[in-house]
Amino acid sequence: MPNTPQAMALTPMATQPLAPTTEAAVVSMAPPATVMDEQIEKSIGRMSIETTEHTGEMTATRELFLKLTEQVSKIFVGQDELVLGTLVSLFSSGHVLIESVPGLGKTLFVRVLGHALGCDFGRIQFTADLMPSDVTGAPVFNMKTQEFKFHPGPVFTQLLLADEINRAPAKTHAALLEIMQEHRVTVDGTSYPIAPPFVVIATQNPVEQEGTYNLPEAQLDRFMMKLIVNYPSASQEASILKMHSRQESISERLQTEIETVTTPEEINAAIKQNGEVIIDDALVDYINRIVRITRNWPQIYMGASPRAGLALMQGARTLAAFQGRDYAIPDDVVQITLPVLRHRVILTAEAEVEGQEVDQILADMIRTVEVPRI
């Protein structure tokens, strides 16, 4: 991940500006400037981690985060939001949905991250004829013992890449619901647990593309964040070309350049420690008000569920820990609000017809929620 002198800044995923610029845009209902803290305003749709020296209760977690980003940046160039959003979700026991066109390095990123984490890596290529048993595994009859024996599917791993998930039928998606929520697989009445850490990193193509389908709301709600990956900048793309100009395979570079800086056991310990980050009652109320206002917003047909509030709370804890703090602040919540909410709300038909962007609507909505002074 590229560093700046003060911060690793993640630019908003949507290319639309936060202030309305067209007649079709939502008219901002923001309260007077005295209510909206300037720092909070800057944090809408923008996550960042300070790289300056820091001491605090969560220093170990912060150092682990910096080590991981350093390793990933050796091979994977740019896409800072993807890196930080995925790590926040991973260390919050959450799953990630990535939307982008093919060829932007999603698979490479997961492979590099898995090597740096010391985790097992699995991949499922979703297609229209993929069956649920291809995902979960199935009992296989053993002719020698005359018994059925369960053969685990590719979901029995720690870092699972569900590639092009929106090309598979609904019955295959249903097979992932229990796995993502309960971390277990049930086949013929028998449950098989999946050991932590376990994170699903699913990729999907924009729904306009041929052969793609919308994911069901129940499955979308199980993803902690939806990250949108855009094309790299000109300088980043030039760096990619230079970096991969050598006649050396990615597998060879993973072995020679990427160090394993942690273990699954250390990840589980960090997840547990992140859960102890303090959330003030006023901040809990702030999260609650953000989630509830989505259910009454004019441009939103269906608002976010209580699971969204839990995701905001745990994500804020993890982001605070990455900063070295053992307490969360409103800025931590605001920075992750768009990735947490954008896939959990459904716009009205009028908003869809007018071409309004969900990120723009959510940004305007966040501005109306009074920020607690903590």
SS field, number of helical segments: 15
- State the CATH class of the largest domain: Alpha Beta
Low-confidence stretches: 1-36
Distance between the termini: 31 Å
Give the fraction of residues assigned to helices. Answer: 40-55%
Assembly type of the shown chains? Answer: single chain
Fold and architecture overview:
The protein has 374 residues and is α/β, with parallel strands linked by helices. It has 2 domains: 14-46 and 54-58 and 277-374, Magnesium chelatase subunit I, C-Terminal domain (Helicase, Ruva Protein, domain 3, Orthogonal Bundle); 78-259, P-loop containing nucleotide triphosphate hydrolases (Rossmann fold), CATH 3.40.50. It is 40% helix and 15% strand. The protein contains 15 helices and 13 strands. It has a 5-stranded parallel β-sheet with strand order 4-7-10-3-11. α11 (281-293) packs across α12 (306-322) and α12 (306-322) crosses α13. It is globular. The model is unreliable at 1-36 (pLDDT under 50).
Question: In summary, what is this structure?
Answer:
It is built from 15 helices and 13 strands.
What layout of secondary structure does this protein have?
Elements: E1 7-10, H1 38-43, E2 47-50, H2 59-72, H3 80-90, E3 96-99, H4 106-117, E4 121-125, H5 132-136, E5 137-142, E6 147-152, E7 159-163, H6 170-182, E8 184-187, E9 190-193, E10 199-204, H7 217-220, E11 225-228, H8 234-243, H9 250-257, H10 264-274, H11 281-293, E12 300-302, H12 306-322, H13 330-341, E13 346-347, H14 349-353, H15 358-366
Parallel strand pairs: 3-10, 3-11, 4-7, 7-10
Antiparallel strand pairs: 1-2, 5-6, 8-9, 12-13
